[in-house]
Amino acid sequence: MPVSTLKSAYWTGVRHGAPFLLVIVPFGLLFGVVATESGLNLVQVMGFSILVIAGAAQFTAVQLMVDEAPTVLILVTALAVNLRMAMYSASITPWLGAAPLWQRAIAAYFLVDQTYALSQARFEARPAMTLRERMAYYFGAISPICPLWYVATLAGALAGQAIPPEYALDFAVPITFLAMVAPALRTLAHVAAAGTSVGVALALAFLPYQAGVLLAAVAAMAVGARVELWTGARA
């Protein structure tokens, strides 16, 4: 395959991933600030972001640590929040599963919400792409997103209280997930799962240690799977 074709696929991924910097940078800054203010030192903050590389789970875990929740509950809740990564992996395996092990290992580490959303949409829209083109696009989408997550986290951890409150960096959290979830609501099952998660999370907001989020995730998956089976049977 011509190198130019792979370069084109890579740079297309870079271009598609670049707009997410508008939310990734403040998201990372916010985590660095919050984690530092919660008592983590610089090494712990950066280790958290590099090893976990999952903003939602990181925020959840830090908040539970501040609330002095039991360690088991912190681990279970963080894993539950990241359970979507298992579904992402199963969904994207048909497109990337034939790649060499080392490439799949790197791809698995960098499987985050943004790279999955971009890659899945691209691969479905262009099923004729070769495996090498898919991998090039995937790594292209990673390039502007993941390195800037580390840099923004470091900047937030170093800056700490120096970032004025009126900057309201917390806007990045809901906007990030709205930007990814909204285009994915393509079927009745998707809508039912999303609606269930919102409803259950709000109804159980009174539970301690954000346990309502954990239960909302379980309920959403169950409802989504049931609706998908029902619609499949009707079809």
Automatic annotation (TrEMBL):
Keywords: Cell membrane, Membrane, Transmembrane, Transmembrane helix, Transport. GO terms for cellular component: plasma membrane. Its main location: membrane. It is found in: Cell membrane. The chain crosses the membrane at residues 16-35, 42-66, 136-159, 171-189, 201-225. Pfam families: AzlC. GO terms for biological process: L-valine transmembrane transport. InterPro entries: Brnchd-chn_aa_trnsp_permease. It is a multi-pass membrane protein. Belongs to the AzlC family. This is Putative branched-subunit amino acid permease. It comes from Rhodovulum marinum.
